[in-house]
Design a protein that fits this description.
Blueprint (H helix, E strand, L loop, with lengths): L6 E4 L5 H10 L4 E4 L10 H10 L4 E4 L6 H6 L1 H22 L2 E7 L22 H16 L4 E5 L2 E2 L6 H9 L6 E3 L3 E2 L2 E2 H14 L5 E4 L6 E2 H14 L10 E3 L20 H7 L6 H19 L4
Parallel strand pairs: 1-2, 1-3, 3-4, 4-5, 5-10, 6-9, 7-12
Antiparallel strand pairs: 8-11
Helix pairs in contact: 1-7, 2-4, 4-5, 6-8, 8-10
The structure holds NADP nicotinamide-adenine-dinucleotide phosphate (NAP).
Length: about 300
């Protein structure tokens, strides 16, 4: 089917990834984007009728309760949005014969493996967020075996402030900054992720099950932040430091729930199935910060 005639329905379209998906996929597909106002996933009983009334070929669900601390504080809400609503979306998609792409997280892993996690490694979450997302994965694939569950990690991009953006903002004000050095994962550019989703939607309708999607390479929060500062410095931003003093995950007492230490993921299955090799996260970060800098420079030009 030519992609122009593919009709995509994107939920949670006001979120960081939801906004990126909506903008990028609309370049090649017919996109209908729903925010919480159009479909509140708390109202499980309304999901079936709303989906039945809306023509679409592929349902894409980046909606969720995505803060681990919010999930710890509101476990019932998190379970409903991250697991029960996806189950209902999957049940309806299966009944209607539509494709479902649902997003999950590297936090389904316990973080004890030092090499990148594969899709068939055991998902044994250590916090409420991971537990609800793992339950969501299982529920989606049970209700709709043809569904695709895309696990993603450490997103950055133009639609939501992330660790590198925040570190740069702080370094414009202070030279005494720190970041966690003993927690690692795979930073992932939402622009790359949306392009992979576009390819999966338009060219790979056969791919199902769990798929890891992230940029290549592993970083700690300290390394990710220092890479951002080095790029910012090259772009001429007046950052006061390019170094972050290392802090330890176990000393971060402001977290309300546990964080898995090492959750970098392997994209070998994605490459085997599609031939696509994600670029290194540093190259993607460079592009993100260049774009941001160009936009800021443009917006400061008097009109
Ligand atoms: N960001 C990351 O680094 C990261 C890492 C790993 C995995 N992920 C996964 O990637 C996906 C997207 O993450 P994100 O960072 O884009 O999340 P986000 O910015 O927090 O967006 C989540 C969206 O879900 C919507 N939502 C929450 N409750 C809802 C409800 N009751 N009904 C309808 N919509 C509701 C929110 O709506 P409102 O705008 O109205 O609040 C928001 O737009 C999630 O599945 C997340 O678990 C993200």
């Amino acid at each position: 089917m030519p992609s122009a005639s593919l009709r995509l329905l994107i939920l949670g379209s006001n979120g960081g990834l939801g906004r990126s998906l909506t903008r990028q996929l609309a370049m090649t597909c017919d996109v209908v984007a729903w925010t919480r106002a159009e479909l509140d996933l708390m109202r499980l009983e309304e999901i079936e009728a709303r989906l039945e009334a809306q023509p679409f070929d592929v349902l894409i669900n980046p909606a969720g309760i995505t803060s681990p601390d919010d999930c710890a504080q509101h476990p019932e809400l998190a379970q409903k949005i991250n697991a029960e609503a996806p189950r209902e979306l999957a049940r309806v998609c299966h009944r209607l014969g539509r494709r479902l792409i649902h997003f999950s997280t590297d936090y389904v892993f316990d973080g004890t493996k030092l090499s990148p996690w594969n899709e068939d490694d055991p998902a044994m979450p250590i916090n409420r967020y991971g537990l609800t997302k793992r339950d969501g994965e299982l529920a989606v694939l049970k209700a709709c075996p043809q569904a695709l569950v895309a696990r993603v990690s450490w997103l950055f991009g133009p639609d939501k402030s992330s660790h590198p953006d925040q570190i740069i903002a702080k370094a414009l004000q202070s030279e005494n900054l720190s970041a966690i050095a003993n927690k690692t994962s795979s930073p992932t550019f939402t622009r790359d992720l949306c392009e992979w989703i576009r390819m999966l939607v338009t060219s790979h309708p056969e791919i199902k099950g769990i798929l890891h999607l992230c940029n290549q390479g592993t970083a700690s929060w300290q390394q990710w932040g220092e890479a951002a500062l080095e790029i910012a410095n090259r772009l001429g931003l007046p950052v006061l430091t390019q170094k972050l003093s290392p802090s330890a995950l176990e000393d971060c007492h402001f977290f309300k729930d546990a964080r898995p230490p090492h959750t970098s993921m392997s994209t070998a299955r994605f490459t085997k199935l599609t031939g696509i090799r994600p670029r290194p996260w540093r190259d993607a970060l460079e592009e993100h910060l260049h774009n941001l800098h160009a936009e800021l420079a443009f917006s400061s030009v008097p009109h």
